[in-house]
Each structure stands twice: as C-alpha cells, then as structure tokens.
Amino acid sequence: MVSYKELGLVNTRDLFKKAIDGGYAIPAYNFNNLEQMQAILQACCETQSPVILQVSKGARKYANQTLLRYLAQGAVEYAKELTGGKGIPIVLHLDHGPDFETCKSCIDLGFSSVMIDGSHLPYEENVARTREVVEYAHKFDVTVEGELGVLAGVEDDVKSESHTYTQPEEVEDFVKRTGVDSLAIAIGTSHGAYKFKPGDDPKIRLDILHKIEERIPGFPIVLHGSSSVPQDMVKIINENGGKLKDAIGIGEDQLREAAKSAVCKINIDSDGRLAMTAGIRKVMHDDPSVFDPRLYLGPARDMLKELYARKNREVLGSAGHAND
After folding, report:
1. Is 281 a member of any domain?
2. Can you give the residue range of the structural domain that contains 101?
C-alpha cells in the first residue's frame, strides 16, 4: 500500500472547491507516455495551473499502471524543477474505472483520485458499485468520481452508440447514497474525435446543467468527452498523409461557459492525441529520412504543450490558480 501523500500528490477535494468559487475548471489531461506527461507539466507550470493527470484503462494496458504511477511521481519533482521549487498541485486520477478491483488496485498504488464508471448499469447497481468504491477510497482520503448518464462516442474501451442525458431528478439521491466527491454528467459532450456530423450544431445542454446545480448546489461537476478537435490540428494531419474526415468536437466557447459554473473538472484526451499526431506526421512528411524518435516526438511534445497552455488560459480559466 502506497499513500499518494508520500508521492507529493493531492486529491481533488480542495482543488474543486477553489475552482467552483473561482469560476474555472481544472484540466484533466490523459497521458500514456513520457512525452505527453512532459507536455502537460510544461503547459501547466508555465501557466501556473493545477492539473489532473488521468490514466485510462487503455493507458494502464498500454504502459502499465506501475510505470504510469512512477511517471506521475516524477511529475511532482519535474514540476518543482520547472517552477523553481514551488511546484503545482498534481492529482493522479483513474479515468473510467470499470470495477471495484481496478479502483482498489490504483488506490493501493498511490493514485489520489479514482473514477468508478457505473453509468452503463441499472441505477441501483450503479449506486451500489459506486458506494463500494467510495467506502474503500475514503479510508485513505482518496476522492471518488461517479457518473450518471451515458456519453456517445468511442475512446479507448469506452464505447457507446447512444447518448442518455443525466436526469436532474436522480442526482441528489445518487450523491447522497454513494458519498461521491464529484459527479460526471452527460449534457451533450461526446467521446472521441468524431463527436458530431457535418452540419450538426453541437451544443452543451446548459439548461440541464443548471437544473442539476439547483438540485446539488455547490457540488463538483465533471464533463467528459470535452475535446474541441482543433481544426488546425486536423488540417496539419490531413495535409501530411492523414485521413481524418469530418472530425468535429465541442466548441471552446461552450466549455468556457460551463467552466464558470459548478463544472470544475473538464476531461481532454482526443485533442492531445491530435496534437501529437500532427507533430509527428509533419516531421515525417517534411523529412522522410528521420528515424530518431526524439526528432519527431520532441516537436510533437512541443505542439501538445502549446495547445494545453492555451486551453488553460483561454478555455478552462485555470491559469494562475496553482497557488490559490
């Protein structure tokens, strides 16, 4: 058993309260490898933003959860190097934990926050599974995110063809009976890079969000599937041999509006994948003789860092809040 506090990590409880009070959202960026983690930390240290490093089920399978945990531990020291010893608040979070065993494993390894995703289950089963994780996690002061409603789209092993909006009348009962620290809701966001079709007018259902806020005032709300699919990145990919057709995401103006409410955590994964791919494809296209991974992963890392720094400043509003 490893305590996240020994690793220099923090849980989400105080961070979420400050974000709600300050009208901003904390970035929750997924990472799978060293370069992604470097870019995330560089962006957040430069903008003085707290950050949630997310590990998905797919990332655990790809990179091994033990190695990812040590990367996160290294992230704490790396952030201190980047900020002259001050550091920034860093959360290590399990994204879309499928069952109790996975959540427990991550808690025991030093994760400071976990999500138990029972949104695909019947309501009472979701409540029971979520409560079981909460009871274990809270013994170690680890915070827990639950979910109500189903997002459409595909990302790692999270797949759904349909979208079910969160029912406002369920949230108060769910939060009370499970004891969760935050709640992921479905109000129009979607997983993956192909969220919508050409001609669609993607809109976040702010009306549902406001009804939920009325039911559980001041309670931390989370948005999944919130990548905006930057069209400049899509353009770079397609101009350099890629074939991303009709990749469309959520408008950043809508995310900024949501971040001013009780939405205090916004998950972004696909945008990071697009930035990394754009950087790699451009190098490979411009110089086909390149074979040193550092020569294409380095520029990709830089592109990702710039994207996330801008999101912290202009979309999430988290820049400058590391020392709140």
Report:
1. no
2. 4-228+258-270+311-316
DSSP per residue over 226-260, as a string?
Answer: -----HHHHHHHHHTT----S-B---HHHHHHHHT
Q: Can 157 be counted among the known catalytic residues?
A: no
The residue written with tokens 């009962």 in the block is: 173
**What single-letter amino acid sits at 50?**
P
Domain count, the chain: 1
- pLDDT tens for 126-179 read 999 999 999 999 999 999 999 998 765 444 554 444 557 899 999 999 999 999
Determine contact, residues 150/172, Cβ cutoff 8 Å.
no
Burial level of 234, CB count in 10 A (0-12/13-18/19+)?
Answer: buried
Q: What CATH number should be reported for the domain holding residue 262? A: 3.20.20.70
Instruction: Report yes or no on 306 lying in a domain.
Output: no
Q: Residue 115's closest CA among 132, 135, 130? A: 130
Active-site residue (options: 14, 21, 95, 302)? 95
Q: Burial code of 197-229, b = ≥16 C-beta within 10 A, e = fewer?
A: eeeeebebbeebbebbbeebeebbbbbbbbbbb
Q: Residues 300, 35: contact at Cβ < 8 Å?
A: yes
How many of the other CB atoms lie within 10 Å of CB of 314?
Answer: 12
